[in-house]
Amino acid sequence: MVEQVRKLLEKRVESVAELEKLRQSIVDKKDSSRTCISVCGGTACRAAGSEAVVDAFIDEIEKRELQVQVEMKETGCHGFCERGPLVVIEPKKIFYQQVKPEDVTEIIAETVLGGKVVERLLYVDPVTSQKITYEPDVPFYKRQTRTIFGANGEIDPTNIEDYIASGGYSALSKVLTGMKPQQIIDEIKKSGLRGRGGGGFPTGRKWQSCRDAKADIKYVICNADEGDPGAYQDRSLLEGNPHSVLEGMIIGAYVIGSHHGYIYVRNEYPLAVRHARIAIEQAMDYGLLGENIMGSGFDFTVTINKGGGAFVCGESSALMASLEGKIGEPKAKYVHMSEKGLWDSPSLLNNVKTWANISLIINKGADWYSKIGTAGSKGTMIFSLVGNINNTGLVEVPMGITLREMIFDIGGGIPNGKKFKAVQTGGPSGGCIPEQFLDTPVDFDELTKLGSMMGSGGMIVMDEDTCMVDVAKYFVEFLKGESCGKCTPCREGINRMSEILSGITRGKGKREDLDTLEDLAGILSAGALCALGQTAANPVLSTLRYFRDEYLAHIDEKKCPAGICRELIQYSIDPEKCQGCLRCLRACPTGAITGEKREAHTLNRGLCIKCGACYDVCKFNAVIRQ
Amino acid sequence: MAKVWIDGETTIDVEDADGVNSVSLTVDDKEIIVSTGQTILEAVQRVDGIGNIPALCNHPAVKPYGACRICTVEVSEDGGSKFKFVASCLYPVKQGLIVRTNTDKIKKLRKGIIELMLARCPNVKRIQELAEEYGVDKPRFVLGDQDCILCGLCVRACQEIMGKSAISLVNRGIYREVAAPFYAYELTEECIGCGDCAFVCPTGAIEMGDDGRPILPRVKIPYAEIEALMKKEAATPS
Amino acid sequence: MDLTLDFPKVKAIVESSTEKVDSLIDSYAGNKEQLISLLQDIQAEFNYLPQDVLVKVSQKLDIPLSQVFSVVTFFRAFTLKPRGRHLVTVCLGTACHVKGGSRLVEKVERDYGIKPGDTTEDMRFTLETVNCLGCCALGPVVVVDGKYESKMNPDKLDRVLRGYK
Questions:
Q1: Which residue of C has its CA nearest to A472?
Q2: Of A499, A492, A569, whose CA–CA distance to A540 is shortest?
Q3: Cβ contacts (< 8 Å) between B90 and chain A: which residues?
Q4: Cβ distance B67 to B152 under 8 Å?
Q5: Separation between Cα atoms, residue B165 and residue A434, nearest integer Å
Q6: Domain that holds residue A601
Q7: What is chain C's Cα-based Rg?
Q8: Which of A168, A605, C41, C142 could form a Cys-Cys staple with A163, CB 3.0–4.6 A?
Q9: Which residues of B touch A512 (CB under 8 A)?
Q10: Are residues A290 and A384 in the same domain?
Q11: Residue A530 maps to which CATH number?
Q12: Helix, strand or coil, per DSSP, at residue A254
C-alpha cells in the first residue's frame, strides 16, 4: 500500500519545470532506432478485426523475442476507415492497409526484420495504379492538414506519457506560468476560432461572457453527444486523443474560474467513455488534473456522464437538463447558458473539436492559427467523409478547401463509376448541395448561403442512385423520432412533414403538398423552441430548392427517377442478361421469381414485395429496377 | 415611474421607489414603462390599452413554459434594424426593447400553429375558438382526435402549487402524453385528489373521476389507437 | 405503450437480487443528478428496468416516481420490457441508409415478425435501430450482441442470425 502510494506520488508533477523534466525523460527513454508498429484501434478498424491483428502482433513479437527492438502500439483512429485495419510501421511510416491476422508473421519477417515491403498490403492509387509505400504519399492523406487529428496515429490513448512525449500539456504549462485569463481569451478571439459543434459561435466571445458572469460556481462542459448520423469525428478524437480535449477543458476552466467539468458522451460510444475515463485517471495520477494542478494552486476535476440515447441532448440546454438528472428538454435561452446554465450557474459548453483546438492556439499562437482558413472561418475542420465515396474516412482540412477537392481529390470520387449527385452537410439541420456548387469553399457562411450549414462536420456524398425525396424523408423521420415533443411547431410540424413526404414517396402526393411543406418550414423556423425544430425543415427546403424536378416526378408522374421509392418502382428481369443461376429465385421471400436452371427467370410483379433481395444478389445486372 | 402591483388586481404608479427598477419599451408603437423582472406577456397583460397576445400553455399561477409558441412576438434589441421571434411568455422586458405583437408574419405563424393544433384536437372548443378568430378552416392534414394539447399546465400545477408530482410528461415527440407513474396512481401517494390539474387545463382534457382522481387524456383515448386511425385514413386513396 | 409487467420468471430474479439492487442504489446515495447513470447501471445488470426496482430508486434517491418514469420513457437507452437473449441493432445512420440499411430492418421484420423495439415471442431476438455507430466505411452495419457485422445485405443477415439461438 505504501509502495503503491509512493509510486503514485513519484509520478505527480508538482510544477511546470517538473513536467518538462518528465517530458524530457520520456523522450530520452525513446530509442529512435526501435521500430514502432502503430495499429489503428478506432472503432471502425476494430469492427473490421483490428484487435485480432493486435493480438497476432503481440504473439509474434513474444515468439521471436523482439520486445527490445520492436514496440507495438494500439493507437487512435488513423482516419482512412475505408481501408482498415490499418498498420503503419514507424519510423519510415510504411503504410499497410486491410491487414489480417494472417499477414502479421510476414510483416514482422519481411518488413520489420528484413527491411522489405509486403507489396500486396500496400495501397494502390486507383488513378495511377501505382503502389504507394509511405503514409504521407497516400493521396487521401497528402491533401489533408492534420494539425489536430494527425496525433491520433502516434499516440496510445491509454498511455498519458505518449501524449506528454509529443508535447502534451505544454499549452497548460504556458497558461499556468503567467498567462492571465483575459490574455488567453484575447488570444482565442484573435485566432478567430468558431465553435465546431454546429453553431459556429465565436469561441472567444463565449469564453468572455462566461468569465464576466459573476458567480462562485461555474462549470465547463464538453459536448461529446455527437448525434448527426454519419458524423463520428468527435468520437474518434475522444477515443484516440482524449488528453487533447482535457487540456483544452483545463485551460477553459482556468480562464473562467471553474473547478468542475463534465464530459457528456453519447451512450453509443463505449470505447470513447473508456478511454476518457483512463485519461482522467492518469491525468489525476500525474498531477495534471485534480487538486493543485502542477503546483499552481488551481483545482479542477472532470466527471464523465453518458447520454441516454437522445439526439436532442446535443442541444446545450437539453444536455444540461440531462446532466441534472432530468429529461433532455431544451428551454428558452433568452438568458445565455454562459450566464445561467447547469444548475443555473454560468456554464462554458464547447464541442470536442473546439476543445482540441485550444492547446494548438495557445502553443502556436493566434497569428499562426488565423493564417489557416478563410476570412470568416479560421483553422482546420475535421470532417467525416462518408456515403457513396471511395475513400470513406475522417478528413482534416483547412477551411476554404473546395467541396470538389474534398470529394474528388481526397475522397477519391464516386465508386462503381456512378455520377455525383449531391453532398449533404450539417446533419439533420443541414442541406444537400448539388453539383453546380462543388467549387464552393468549405466555410461556415458559404455553406449557410447555399441553404446548408457546416454543422458538426458530417459530409455525406450521394450518387445518382439516390432519391432526394427519400433523403428528405429520411432526415424528417429521424427528427420525428428525436423531437422532445415539448413545443407544438416541432412535435406536430415535423410529424406532418413526415406524413406529407411519406405520401409523396408512395405516389399519393399533390402539388399543394409542396406549398404546405414550405408553410410548415416557416412555422418551424419562426416558432420552434430550439435549434432542432428551427432547422428541421432545412433538408426539405434544400432538396426542394435544388431537386424540385424529382419531387414533381413523384407527384405528377408517380415515378421515382432514382429507383428507390418502393411503391413507385417495379422490378423485372432482363432475359438477355439473365444467366439462369437461380440466385434470385432462392433469395426471393415470396416466390415471385420462377425459372429453370440456365434459363432466363421471370418475375411475377403480382407477388413481388419489392424488397430488393434479387437486385442485391444478381451478379449479372439482370435485375432491373425502375 | 413604474407600475407596481399591490395585490392581484391593483397597481399603483411609483416614482423611483427604492429597489424598483423600471424600463421603458415600445409595444406595437406604444411606449410603456413597467418594472423589470417580468416577461413581455405579463407586461402586456397588465398594461391597459395594449392589444392582447394569445397564450395557451400560460397561467398566472404557475411558471411559464413556452411550449405552445402561440404567444410568439417579434422583438428588436437594436432599435429596430433586426427583429427576431421570441416567446413573449418567457422573454424578459428590457430597456429600449421594441415589440411587435401583430405583424403579418406573426399572424401567419399563429395561424399555422393553430392549424397544427386543430389537426391534432379538432373537437376541442378552445382550439376551435382560436381557429375561428385567426381564420383557420379545415387543416390540410389528417385529423387526429386528441383533447390534450400538451401544454403541461397540469404537471406544473401539481408541482408548483401543490408541491406534489403525481403526474408528469412521459415519452417523447409525437408520443408524448401526460401520465401517472406507470399509468397507475396506486404506485405512489402523490395524488391527493385536489383537482388543480383539471382546474388549469385549458381544453378540458382532464376531468375528475368518481374516485377523486383525475382521468387523464391517455386513459380516454390511447395515442396508439389514434395513430392507427390516422394511418388508415392516410392510406386510403383520396 | 403496452406494459405487460407480470413476467413471473423475471419477478423471481428481481426478488432474489435485492442485495444487488440495494448496493447499486446505495452507491449513488443522495446524488439525484446521477439518476440517469444509476438507471444505466441497473439496466446493464438486469437487461431491462424492473418496475419494483424503479419504485425503490424513487424512494431511496428521493425523486418523485413520476420523474423517474419520465426519464425512463424519454431516453431510448432504457427499456421497461425484458430484452431477448440476443440484441440485434441495425444502424440507420445516413451513410448506412444510403447503402440500403432500412432493407435490413425490413428483413428482420419479415422473418421474425418484430418491429424495432420489439422482442420475439420466444425471447430469442430483440430488434433495435441506432442512428450512426460511426463505422460508415463498413456500412450497412448490424451489431449482434456487441459484435459488429459489416457490409451487410439481407442475405448475409439471414445467415448471421441463424447462428444465434
A1: C94
A2: A499
A3: 332, 334
A4: yes
A5: 51
A6: 570-625
A7: 18
A8: A168
A9: 140
A10: no
A11: 1.20.1440.230
A12: helix
